Amino acid sequence: MAPRFNNLDMQAHDIWAAFSLLSRLPVPVDHARSGARGARAAWAYPIVGAAIGVMAGCIGAVGLWIGLPAGMVGAFVLAILALLSGGMHEDGLADFADGVGGGRNVAQRLEIMKDSRIGAYGAIALCLALLARWSGIAALEGWALIGALAMTGAISRSAVVFLMYIMPPARPEGLSSSAGKPLKSSLLIALFIALFISILCAGLWGILIFALSFLGIIPIYGLAQRNLRGQTGDVLGAAQQCVEIASLAVILAILA
C-alpha cells in the first residue's frame, strides 16, 4: 500500500510526480502512478516552486557575491528559472494572452491557445512579464534573493492549485482536464506549505506577503472566466506568472 501521512490523501511519490510535471529535473517518477494520481498530487506543487526558486536564487546570490552587476544576475536567474521549469509557465502566459486578445468567441480563443505559434498579444505579455520579473529580481540584494525566490516560487504554485480548485476546465480534453480537480485537502495543504515557506523566509511578514501576492490571480481569473468560461493549462501558467510578479512586488515593497 502506498505510504500516507496522517490519513490524508498524500503520498510521498506525489512530490516526484509534481517535480516531473512542473520541472525538467530528473526525478525517480513512476509515470503511470503519477497519471493516476492527477490533481491529488497538487499539494506538492509549492515544494517544486520553492526548490526551483532556491536553486536559481543560490546561483544568483553567488553571482552577486563575486561582483556581477545586478542586471546581469537578474538575467541569469530568469534563464535558470526557465530552464528548470521548461518555460511552461511563460509559454502558458503567451498562449493565454494570444487567445484572449485575438479570439472572438470561446471556441476560437481556445483554438488560438492550442496554436504553438506566438502572436503579438503573446509576445507583448511575455516581454512585459519578463521585464517585470527581471526588475524585481535585480532589485534584490545578496542572499535575500534566495528567500525571495523560494517564497515567490511556492506562493505562485499554490495559486495554481487554488485556480484548479475554483474553476472548471474550459475544454473536455487537455492537461488541466485530465488532471482533474484537486481535493479540498490538497488545496489546503498546498496553501499551508506556501504560507509556511513564506513565514520561514520572511518571519511574520511572510503572512502579509502570502496574502497580498494572491491579488495577482484576480486579473487572470476575471479574464479566463469571462472569455473562456474556465481554466486550461495556459490559464494556470498565466496565473503563476502574474502571482510571481505580484509576490516580487510585495516583497520589495515590504522588505526592501
Would you mind describing this structure in some detail?
- 73% of the residues lie in helices and 0% in strands.
- With 256 residues, the chain is mainly α.
- Helix 1 crosses helix 2, helix 3 (45-65) runs parallel beside helix 10 (184-202) and helix 4 packs across helix 7 (120-139).
- The protein contains 13 helices and no strands.
- Mean pLDDT is 90; it is low at 1-6.
- It has one domain.
- The chain is globular.
Average pLDDT, rounded to a whole number, is 90
Summarize the helix and strand pattern as letters.
HHHHHHHHHHHHH
How many helical stretches? 13
Q: Helix amount, in percent?
A: over 70%
SS-derived structural category: mainly alpha
C-alpha geometry: globular
Number of domains: 1
What integer value in Å does the Rg equal? 18 Å
Could you tell me the strand content as a percent range?
Answer: under 5%
Multimerization state: single chain
Number of beta strands = 0
The low-confidence parts are: 1-6
Tell me the span between the first and last alpha carbons: 48 Å
Largest sheet: none
Short description:
The chain has 13 helices and no strands. It has helices at residues 13-22, 31-37, 45-65, 70-85, 88-102, 106-114, 120-139, 144-166, 175-179, 184-202, 205-213, 217-227, 233-255.
